[in-house]
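Researcher: I've been going back and forth with a colleague about how 2-oxoglutarate ferredoxin oxidoreductase subunit beta might be arranged in three dimensions. Neither of us has a model we trust, so I'd like an independent prediction. The organism is Geodermatophilus ruber, in case that matters for your notes. Sequence below.
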Amino acid sequence: MSTIDLGMPADGPIADAISASVTAQGEKQTALKAKDFKTDQEVRWCPGCGDYVILNAVQSFLPSLGIAREDMVIVSGIGCSSRFPYYMNTYGMHSIHGRAPAIATGLAASRPDLSVWVVTGDGDALSIGGNHLIHALRRNVNMTILLFNNRIYGLTKGQYSPTSEVGKVTKSTPMGSLDHPFNPVSLALGADATFVGRAMDSDRKGLTDVLRQAAEHQGTALVEIYQNCNIFNDGAFDLLKDPATGPQWTIPLEHGKPLVFGPEGASCVVRDEFGGLRIAETSQVDATEIVVHDATREDPSYAFALSRLSSQDLRYTPMGVFRAVQKPTYEAMMAEQLHAAGTGSPADLDALLAGGDTWTVQG
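Model: Here is an independent structure prediction for 2-oxoglutarate ferredoxin oxidoreductase subunit beta. You can compare it with whatever you and your colleague have in mind.
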């Protein structure tokens, strides 16, 4: 992991040289392998932790993006997941609790040439970092946010988190949690995020597919990753991982395809009488009633309704890309505003200071 210099000149011979160097390095990017994204740091997660799978998946598909390692920055907060930058041979920053989206926002806004990533956990992102997360999402800053959700505080040894189920018995809730858990996908869609997906740590193919789409998205992309903590919350997602129950309760989201799932496609998703979504038996409805998944629908209410199908016990859990729409990014709009300000009439500082919004303090 390295530090990054935010002071790159905007123009001039030095900037041209840097640009030429970056271009040349970018052209060589196709030669990179997964091993090129690995550092010499010992990977220190508990044996069997789902984070290993996610790290391996990210390192494996990054070469296909054609992004030079020096053009990528990974910012993390605090938690088990936040060790991630140490293990990635890119620029990175292990920041402070919950503030990774804020730091990444400043970086993405000042250096739009970089690929900016945030790695966070359910505690880091949704507790102390909840405010920073929703504002990054609503602003549509060009960054990719990976939210590892294990429904527990792992680094601090097993307290309940903002995604823990009601009644969850932990060290901090010995009589069971009273809090209703956040649904991270619903929260992101409520903030009008332009890309929202969900994947499972153990589903290498599905995880890689969602990650690739998120990385290619222009704007804020949030991917919730169900990640098993085998020490403090082992088996949290077994209902979806078990070959006997997983197909029954997992709803695969494929753009342009009907939402049919379960053994032999026995279940499906249809509209209810209020315009929302509900689960039905495929044999009991007409084929035209089955919802065809459209991740590009501008109105987020459809994607939000999808996210509400799942209960806290994980039954009827959609997996894949919920929403992928295009809107202007924050840094692009900021650049336009700065350009407009720079080409207008020079500001008169004296006139500004002597304007009408002044007052005199009496001694």
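Researcher: What would you highlight for our discussion?
Model: I'd start with this: The domain at 16-236 is CATH 3.40.50.970 (Rossmann fold). After that, consider the following. Residues 348 and 354 are 10 Å apart (CA to CA).
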